[in-house]
Amino acid sequence: MFLLPLVVVMVTCAPTAGALAASPYPAGAQHPAKVARASEFAHAANVGGTSAPGGTAPARTKSAARKPAKHAPKKPKLPVNAERAQLAFEAMQKTYYIEGSGLYQGEPFSFLWPFSQAFAATVSMANIPSLKSSFGPEIRARLVGLKSYLDLDNSGAPEGTYTSTLAAYDGTVAPPEGPGGAKYYDDNAWIGIELARIYEQNHEAAVLGGAEGIMAFEMAGWDAQPGIACPGGIPFSNSTEDIERNTVTNAPTAELALQLYRLTGNAQYLQFAEMAYEWVRACYLFQARQTAKAAIGYYTSERLGQENPFFVSVYFRNMLYLDSVTHDPPGTKLVQGYVNYAWEHLRLSDDVFVAGSPATAQLLVQAAIVQDYALLSSAPTTYF
Q: SS3 of 116, please?
């Protein structure tokens, strides 16, 4: 039971249906991701050279060693990973956040999927011991933004389009601000996991209620039809056309169920977590250590470099958690090597990170890097 979150460790390196859905917004409202020019990279100004993969964080670069304003009070120096987490977070907010709205840029607002990862990045930042006290307003701002995606009944949708009309979060901003649409079970699970983490910080009943509301939506999505391949499991979305079931949806839902069992003592959550976990085992064959061993063998530095950093950050979060329990595999070394490389080769001069070919900046990339640095700066007990 303790290792239940680790079923997600390898198989999340694949895009979700939410990310691939056609945009419902008019073409004129598109906000394409920024392709970086060679002159914008920060590595030319770095001091020292590249760090060895898997090594400790190198000394601060010129970019990292920010000079305080002449008369500003001197701030205590943060550990390198925490400092870089803060720089990356500040760049994420400056580049993608829409001030006063609680939302991030997109079409005109981001899909729930990127928002969920900016949300996760904020929660991870709030778990860094030296930054906890300053992140209360940021958490509240993310909760305000999250409300814009909440749809109580798939309002505006034709009758019969959706298999579930329970309250949950739409894949795009819900009416009246946005078009709403399908609710993606994996995206909602990511949000629920973060709400549970916030509840562990502030113990606000409304936050726990939000996580339990998502869990009700997830549990209602369980597909127990007889005669289907591998009966059980939860599909990608509540669209009647979406019948695909996989680990990317079911493993995070098992994590959320286990979190809620720990927080509430409700045995129904534990039973569902075990059922979802057993479904993943039966249909994907791997358990935590087997999965981790296979993942490390397959996901070389080169392959990780080709993945969307969002999926890599989920992989790392689970590797670090496994490492804290078993000390096998060496999760910290793996993550540190990745972020060291990203800092020196994938960072622009304004601390915005890029990924892919051509090198492109987007909210998902930035949120992933923030999470990686924040996780390295906080206790594994805060990860789930």
A: helix
Cβ 190 vs Cβ 252: under 8 Å? yes
- Residue 105: phi and psi, rounded to 5, are -60, 145
- Among residues 140, 221, 141, 144, the alpha carbon closest in space to that of 186 is found at 221
Contact 42, 91 (CB under 8 A): no
DSSP H helix total and E strand total for the chain: 13, 6
Amino acid at 234: I
pLDDT at 103 over 80: yes
d(CA 120, CA 111): 15
What residue has token string 């994938």?
A: 346
Q: Which two tokens mark 273?
A: 């977590």
pLDDT at 303: 83
Specify the residue for token string 């304003």.
69
Residue 69 has pLDDT above 60, yes or no: no
Contacts of 64 by beta carbon, 8 Å cutoff, 6+ apart: 80, 83, 84, 87
Cβ atoms < 10 Å from Cβ of 160: 7
Q: Which fold has domain 4-13+30-66+77-382?
A: Glycosyltransferase (1.50.10)
- Of these ranges, 52-66, 204-218, 312-326, the one predicted with the greatest mean pLDDT is 204-218
- Average pLDDT on 19-23 reads 39
Domain residue spans of the chain: 4-13+30-66+77-382
